[in-house]
Amino acid sequence: MPRERLGPRATAAAPTQPFSSAEEAWFWFMQAHQALLDGAKPRAGEALTPRPCEPVDIFRALDRLYRHRRLIRDHVAVLAHYGRRLMAPDPARRREARSAGLWREALDRLEGPLRRKGIVA
User: Are residues 32 and 42 in contact, defined by beta-carbon separation less than 8 angstroms?
Assistant: First the structure.
């Protein structure tokens, strides 16, 4: 008599939906990161919208750009600040004009690696 398997069962891979932009992927990453900080314990396959990556994949892409000096500390600080707010800086506001430029520049540089990995459509 065959023994019953006690581990997770293999299921058919659900079709994933890539992000429409690097900005959407960044906000998703920030929400996932905040959830982890708040004590959430995410499990694979439980998301409402299956994505083609894990949050760490986006972090690794950002880290690689930073280590290769394609992004500077100011880029990362702006991404973190406005990512926590889940709102892009408004270039029309005088106090956010510089941040808006850094935001756009950072996301433009992040979009290439994310697109090559299939994370961004």
Answer: yes
